[in-house]
Amino acid sequence: MVLPQEHGVSILGRQLAVEVVAFGFKHGVPAGLDLLFDVRFLRNPNYEPELEPLTGFDPAVAAYIAADPSTAPFLERLFDLIDFLVPRYAEDRDGLKIGVGCTGGQHRSVYIARRLTTHLESAGDVRVRLETRDTAK
Does the predicted TM-score (pTM) go above 0.70? Predict the structure, then answer.
């Protein structure tokens, strides 16, 4: 993903600030989202006793979610969409807030939001912040 540039300097005079928020729908949708992705279609680690107390930051949970056959195709499409949209939002905005929701905001949304954050950071053209709103609930 490349934002408009002229001679290596952003013609916007700034970097787009992207906030990625992982949350649980049962705790309510965060205010001010520009984009929202619902990942409740992925297998839920909450139903595995050894994974339930963990979060999407834990390697065992990440492996469980990554093993879902829907995860890789979803991430590929998500990254393609984000790569298409972010430069267009950057043309006239300072910030973009992306929500990733699952049921409780502990596992799937955290994992996908982390992957999305890493993808955005790898582009280097935006400032990215990850918030995991409901992991302490």
Answer: yes
